Amino acid sequence: MKVFLLQILAFLLFGGGIHCQASTRRLTFVVKEASYTRLCSTKNILTVNGQFPGPTIYAKKGETIIVDVYNRGKENITIHWHGVNMPRYPWTDGPEYITQCPIQPGSKFSQKIILSSEEGTLWWHAHSDWTRATVHGAIIVYPKNGTKYPFPKPNAEIPIILGTFKLRVDHGKTYLLRIINAALHEALFFSIAKHKMTVVGTDGSYTKPLTRDYITIYPGQTFDVLLEANQLPDHYYMAAKTYSIAPVAQNFYDNTTTTAIVQYRGYYTPSSPLSLPHFPAYNDTNASVQVMAGLRSLADAEHPSNVPLSPSTKLIYTVSVNSFLCPNNSCAGPNGTRFSASINNISFQSPTIDILQAYYYNISGVYGDKFPSVPPLVFDFTADYLPLEYQTPEIGTEVRVLEYNSTVEIVFQGTNLVAGTHHPMHLHGYSFYLVGWGFGNFDKNRDPLRYNLVDPPLQSTISVPTNGWVAIRFEASNPGEGGFIYKAL
Ligand SMILES: *[C@@H]1O[C@H](CO)[C@@H](O)[C@H](O)[C@H]1NC(C)=O
Ligand SMILES: *[C@@H]1O[C@H](CO)[C@@H](O)[C@H](O)[C@H]1NC(C)=O
Ligand SMILES: *[C@@H]1O[C@H](CO)[C@@H](O)[C@H](O)[C@H]1NC(C)=O
Ligand SMILES: *[C@@H]1O[C@H](CO)[C@@H](O)[C@H](O)[C@H]1NC(C)=O
Ligand SMILES: *[C@@H]1O[C@H](CO)[C@@H](O)[C@H](O)[C@H]1NC(C)=O
Ligand SMILES: *[C@@H]1O[C@H](CO)[C@@H](O)[C@H](O)[C@H]1NC(C)=O
Ligand SMILES: *[C@@H]1O[C@H](CO)[C@@H](O)[C@H](O)[C@H]1NC(C)=O
Ligand SMILES: *[C@@H]1O[C@H](CO)[C@@H](O)[C@H](O)[C@H]1NC(C)=O
Ligand SMILES: *[C@@H]1O[C@H](CO)[C@@H](O)[C@H](O)[C@H]1NC(C)=O
Ligand SMILES: *[C@@H]1O[C@H](CO)[C@@H](O)[C@H](O)[C@H]1NC(C)=O
User: Fold this and answer.
1) Domain of residue 177, residue span
2) Where is the signal peptide (predicted)?
């Protein structure tokens, strides 16, 4: 019997394009240090081909690309194709110690990228330690020859990796902004003064048009958004600001507003001063989920929805921030503890060889297969006050093995342990349907009645709302893939 692995990981994090034609192309990524100047200071950063952000990979739906990755840096590295499903070929998807060992300094590894159903904007990034902070870039997947966008063709397309953008526009034209949140852990509100945006896709799948004043984009997500340059020619701020429930005073996150200017071409005197777009309050959790709540897939003949209607496997996973005691309370977390994160109270310990290899060659002792299907302890997960003794998780390298072609529902339940916060979740090698979400504790009798099984959005990264839950469904038809990545704070 064929099986695939659902590896469950919980980590805690603190604080020039290449163009396409034929069906298998080869690209070269040389990972190396380069000096980079920003805000008047120059430092060495790790780059791909000396570029920051790294090269954009342009492709057509269904294409296969081979990327020869040369590690000329000083650290181990892997490159992950974020949101690419890699059907039946998990071997070069990148996650360190999950599907491969890292590429060591001085060595080379050829990574195949197999595009299948994805269409829209995806991205790639390094997947070891902190290297992804500078080693990342966009993957833009165009419709196949003979097919087109399910929305009017924009006049121009602009990839925007948040933090590194500028934009000049002509009045009357429509622009497709391909927005990627490459931040390590920050959810961002993004808005353009006096302009509305129409979301037409996320994570490499199209959506029904959703017109909004702002969007919330979680770490790892991509949004394809149409911007109509339909206002008086002027300069307008576009801006991004962190959503966070952490108290401002604690300095947990960067609370500055990143701006860039949308500049209409032409002769006029720009307004002064420019006004900032209106944003929800930095800690407005309800506002932060409204875009997610409004997303619907196209679910038409050309883009059918294949959401499993009666899943064969149902799992409930709590996602928590945790704390470990340190000798003499010497760590930097609350009360001298060390932050951690867990799923169903298991905090992931990285193995020494990759899990996929251990599975394939039947090497025992690398991981266990006892990952719990439901929370080991049921309590009022989102209560204001929770017993301190619940905070310390178990440590383990546990895997959930799923039967090939089983249909799976996972409810991710956020908890209020240590700090109830939002939890971005990314599933390697899969897109999944977001069928439901809510605040508070998931109710297995009442909540499924409100699921969207008609046109749920297809995502590869979602965020569990602060003190809330999400329900996702997918078919386990991609053996070897399925590492969940969860990063808290
Ligand atoms: C780099 O990878 C190799 C092979 O997996 C491993 O033995 C080594 O410890 C890694 N180095 C670091 C600094 O993690
Ligand atoms: C797709 O269209 C482009 C431009 O029209 C052409 O160069 C290319 O050969 C076509 N590819 C295929 C596979 O038909
Ligand atoms: C940003 O955080 C600092 C402290 O870390 C605080 O002094 C400042 O008021 C905050 N700014 C805003 C706009 O919230
Ligand atoms: C949001 O922040 C404001 C001011 O910083 C504070 O008064 C309010 O209580 C916060 N709201 C929540 C839900 O934490
Ligand atoms: C959340 O926001 C939506 C949309 O703005 C609004 O309709 C709803 O009343 C809000 N809910 C709460 C609890 O504030
Ligand atoms: C903890 O503190 C005690 C008393 O000050 C000291 O004797 C001990 O060495 C400390 N332990 C560590 C691990 O720092
Ligand atoms: C820190 O310790 C105090 C007193 O024991 C306790 O009330 C508080 O909840 C602790 N905070 C955390 C985050 O553990
Ligand atoms: C895998 O290893 C286990 C224990 O080491 C053994 O019982 C089992 O038969 C092996 N399976 C295969 C397919 O080799
Ligand atoms: C997690 O497991 C540890 C160790 O068994 C236990 O002390 C703690 O209470 C558990 N917490 C929860 C929320 O299950
Ligand atoms: C798994 O699903 C695929 C696609 O739906 C189908 O072609 C295949 O026959 C199925 N295999 C098994 C073993 O059920």
Assistant:
1) 156-294
2) 1-20
